[in-house]
Design brief:
Blueprint (H helix, E strand, L loop, with lengths): L1 H30 L5 H5 L13 E9 L3 H9 L12 H6 L22 E3 L6 E8 L3 E6 L4 E10 L2 E10 L6 H38 L1
Antiparallel strand pairs: 1-6, 2-3, 3-4, 4-5, 5-6
Amino acid sequence: MRKRTSIAAGTALAVSGGVIAYPLFFRRWCLTWGARPGEVSMKLPGDELLTEPGIVSTRAVWVDAPASAIWPWLVQMGPGRGGAYTYDWIENLFGLGMHSADKILPQYQDLQVGDAQRLGKRGPLLRVAVLEAERSLVLRSDDGNWVWAFSLVPETAGTRLVSRNRIAARGGQLPVRMFNLLVMEPGSLIMERKMLLGIKQRAEDLARQVRS
């Protein structure tokens, strides 16, 4: 009985520590991984589609390639298309049908405003809201609760790939809010970091092929 009590007390203490430590010390880093201060604060296409979000994440990566080498990987993303360039096995545990491509798929390059794709059988329907070739791709869920924007910002020696999520986190019971805070937010960093680095690798490989 004492052992069980000690385990329960230890678990409660660990959870309490996480509840306190994450918002104070890790949340900003989690929501802004890789992004420069100016990228976090700057207005991006798609911000106007959800003006009062509950959660905003801005994550970024530098790519040693022009925007033209990054753009094809963005427009072919999605289930049943080019995948998400992240951990497919995790995505597919949720039935998302993601299979990350390692080559450009011509059949998925003609993306248009209004095109939609559903994340899983019961997931949100994401629709292309903004499409500026080699500059901006913005997806918006049909329920209006999620806006996901990609921006390509050219630099002298490469391109900044910026990903911004705006989510309308409305109320909910405390356990749900704590789950979103302590599990979903860090989990989103794990998946999105892998995605951004996956796009970076693919775009840089493509740029080297073009140069040679």
